[in-house]
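I am writing to request your help with a piece of structural work I have in hand. A protein sequence and the structure tokens that stand for its backbone fold form the material at issue. Please examine both parts with care and let me know of anything in them that strikes you as inconsistent. The record follows directly beneath this note.
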Amino acid sequence: MIADTSWGTIVLAALPWFLVPAFILWRVRTTTSLAQYSAEIPGDASLVSVIIPARNEARNIEGCARSILAGSWKNIEVIVVDDHSSDGTGEIARRVAQSDSRVQVIDNPELPEGWFGKQWACQNGQLAAKGPLLLFTDADTRHGPELIARSMRAMIARNAGLLTVAGSQTMGSFWERVIQPHIFGLILARFGNMERINQSTNPYDKIANGQFMLMRRDIYDRAGGHEAVRTHVAEDLRLAQEWTRLGYSVQFVEGFDFMSTRMYEGLGEIWRGWGKNIWAAGRDTLNAGPVVTTLARIASPLVPLWEIVPPVMIVLAFAGVVSPAAGAWGAIAYTCTTLFWIVLHVAFRAPVLYALLNPLASVVLMGMFGRSTWRGGRVEWKGREYVSR
């Protein structure tokens, strides 16, 4: 790969592996945090209707609901939408409801043609809601006591129609610690820092986190609710984009100290969970025609080679297959990418040593990207099949 053994040539060849991570870190250097907003409860605290779509969430639903109920914002109603669960989710939620009158459980009607399951559950949950504020949250979240209070303050201060919060990620298994920071790092690389997201009026610069979306009911209704995004796998992303197109303010804040989520447990769940929307959702972030979209579909599985090739060169150099100069290049490039991932692992509160395994994460992502792009808009999730438009 590199015949010239001069260090100048080697360093020059490795320079992109330093510059690209440095640019990404510079781009995401600022954060807008919930911590800067008060947790004080106003005397006229509005009713917040918390809607939890739940399909086979027996391991999560009680912990999620009770964490919300324990919050300092007491004027809430919690609506659990049991979406045809087969694992006892509805029964567990009803036991919680028996202990707190602020909880109700509704059974989701049969899924109609042209709807994704989560959007249909959210749609029916909001029909039962009484509050002027809607909070859509996932069953795998855990809410800190001040989460809603601080979010309400942030919503008012930022004049937001929709406020979305990024919480910390609980990573319990080996594969979670290897892969999850990579996924979030790629999202950061695409969208940049939160203030850039917040200030932009370009819908393609907007993103939301479906784990926590607090919104004004009147705007939700005017914007078409979840029906407007019923055929898109990443309903949170599309809601943020659609609201921005309509001129409503969408604001994104960091709340690592106030909310946590364990999205997936183990490699199988990660593969199925992220695999369902890496391409189908990723293409919604592209403001491009069919030619560019097709090229992106072809190229996206190759992106992980950026981190796979350097350690391969190190191994091949030790084996005598390539020159020592190629091995030296691989060592420098691998060091640069590893330092980048160390920074992000610290930021995401993930164990730092797992950053050393960034090539392994990229191998998995390459397979995930390839499968997702090959399937196009076809999505499988929790026993259902969809086609994302």
About this structure: The mean pLDDT is 91. The longest helix spans residues 324-347.
